[in-house]
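Collaborator request, handled under Task 6.
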Amino acid sequence: MQESPRENGADDWIPDFGLSHTGTIGVTVAARAEMLPMLRSVVETVLLTADFTLDVVADVRVAIDEIVTALVGAAEGVEVACALRYDRHRVEVRVSALTSTADVLPKNSLSRHLLESMVDGLSIDYRADQALETYRMVVCFDRRRTGHWEW
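Structure tokens returned to the collaborator:
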């Protein structure tokens, strides 16, 4: 009888159904609230195709919702860019847009608290453009494929 992956110590075992478990994709949408479902659908489809669990997909969808809603609310530019990179262990997401303020997701906000509770790593950075009086906001997060805790 063959050992299960958990019994032989392969905690990061993921079934191989012939799909690639690594990839990168980027999508840019207009910085308008009505584009959020399109972006969310693309992200969801990519993660489901890459065999991420429904829990991970749901967490990433909610994180995308929170981030893009905040960016669109403060948008000064015409677009929001989203890039995903995934492998057998995690998905990394980078969302960016031009905004009128650097305080898009304040530390004490409910959105920020929600994000920090759902993802494994979160960074929010910006670069000011004095001439245009705008900020290039970049929000990055990652989520492990197997969940927040190692079993």
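The cover message to the collaborator said: "The helical segments are 36-49, 54-73, 110-118. The domain at 23-144 is CATH 3.30.565.10 (Heat Shock Protein 90). Please let us know whether this matches your experimental observations."
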